[in-house]
Amino acid sequence: MEKFCSYIAIFLIVAFGNAIHATAGDPDILKDFLVLPSLDPSTITRQYFTFTGKTPALVTKATMKEFPALEGQGVSVSAIIYPPSGMNLPHVHPKASELLIVLLGSLEVGFVDTTNKLFTQTLQAPDMFIVPKGLVHFQVNTKTDSPSIALGVFGSANAGTVSLPSTVFGSGISAEILAKAFKTDEETISKLIQANN
Question: What is the 3-state secondary structure (H, E, C) of the chain?
């Protein structure tokens, strides 16, 4: 009986471990691609699979929101143009890791792990840098006379982006609470709140 209980315990541990592992990441799809329920699959053409980034911007994202053909594919991308001295402020992608590929110029990149250790690197085209999922990270073009261009490739069709300055100072958290958290005065925090609203 004792041996039987040991087998049951091992089975439950393996089954539970596999159940946790199986839910990590985007779900696999059983078709070649997914189509929005509002669309008739017979009307899909090559245009459905093409994203042109219609609006000029510092960051052109292609996630499921902007490019529905990515649903179920487990990938998304953003093209980022950094003007001279430009930066991508500290932010987090809670649902995916990011592979940053420098296409033009150079960037200083970095992330902070859960022990508060900062990892930074200066990249030159065509260097790459991986940012683990959910960690605070940033990029800075340290050149004052030339732009930089990079691609951010994500391991999810919807990586999510949480910008730390606007999330913290534009969320409605009171200046009193934030002043205590940042060990500063309410006047300083009020200025930051005003700048992010």
Answer: CHHHHHHHHHHHHHHHHHHHHHCCCCCCCCCCCCCCCCCCHHHCCHHHHCCCCCCCCCEEEECCCCCHHHCCCCCEEEEEEECCCCEEEEEECCCCCEEEEEEECEEEEEEECCCCCEEEEEEECCCEEEECCCCEEEEECCCCCCCEEEEEEECCCCCCCEEHHHHHHCCCCCHHHHHHHCCCCHHHHHHHHHHCC
